[in-house]
Amino acid sequence: MERELFMRQIIVLIVLSVSLFSARVSNDYWEKGLDLETYLQRHHISTGIIDQLDKDDIQLVSEIDHNRRFYEMIASNGILLQALIPTGEELQLHLFRTPSCYEIEVIPVSYQKDTYVTLLKVEKNPHRDIVKKIKNRKLADEFTKVMKHSVNFSGIQKNDKLAIVYDQKMRLGQPIGIPDIKVAMLESHKERHYVFKHTDGKYYDENGTELVKKYMGKPLKHIRITSHFTNRRFHPVLKRWKAHLGTDFGARRGTPVLSAADGRVVFAQWKGANGNLVKIKHRDGYATIYAHLSRIKTKCGKKVKKGEVIGYVGNTGRSTGPHLHFGVYLNGRAINPMRMVKFSSKGLYGKDKKAYIRRKKRYTKIIDKIFDENRPSYVWNTVQERWVSPNKREYYRKIGW
Questions:
Q1: Are residues 243 and 207 in the same domain?
Q2: What is the pTM assigned to this prediction?
């Protein structure tokens, strides 16, 4: 189904390009601070088109991020014919012109996902070398984040080695989203340090100790969920793609809203469909948003503590009743908030730890073999060219990956 949608988009673009001769297709990063309503007005499109979307879809309108590329087809006379505007890694808004009007729909982002193995020697420092050799800054950011709890980066020397096994999504020859690191290893002073991502989505060291703690608290004292987080699914009844990149909590108007963790307020004002919204940046690349507030009780730039009141539940923006829309982001990627508010800092015990140890032993054996035999990396080289050694894919399968 996704492939059919992708091919349909490509065919439409090609047919329109041929029929309109000088129509051009371009892609660029979404302008920082630009909202969909302003974008529509720039192209002389009625903002009433947004009313075609339901509550969950409208919430996606507020998820458009300036760090993501969007695609446009513009006719020779300057009229917008079609636009693909990502609202996250999984879904995008498809805006298109028909003979009588413009229409808008939510469709999945088409991408290819594969597992990559990177090996390299340190020349300057791991972060800089990954950016230079692998040309993936987000991979460098993720590696630094997951390894900093196990390794003293100031003690790393030239010719130390590192290995990373990660999943990466690719779209039209370019990486999209945050690389999903499965295993990371750094050999320094002839000692190997490992970090493993377990089936629960958390990172652990060789002893099963959780490395990146889930430290957030509840945004409301009493939790009543009215709408759960969903990243991307095809609705079996509505027959269309749906997403809700946050969790909605039902509560009376005026109920105090609490900061989920220590951080700094980076946004505290009205934001279109979100109504009154507060956004807080936290450590380790996390950020939280609190939408539809009746009143904001903080200001941009202020440092807040976990549990501090930052506003009050309301019904502002495009909302069907008093509630709090609570969103959690990791390096700009929406994640399920309930994974954060129901955290455990006790590590792994019993059956869970035994399962982790078995998984760790298998992964350690594989990555050590790749590392010791200096197997060529399976990576993409540039945003224009993707180099793949086909025999490596089969090799990784044979040794158990």
A1: no
A2: 0.65
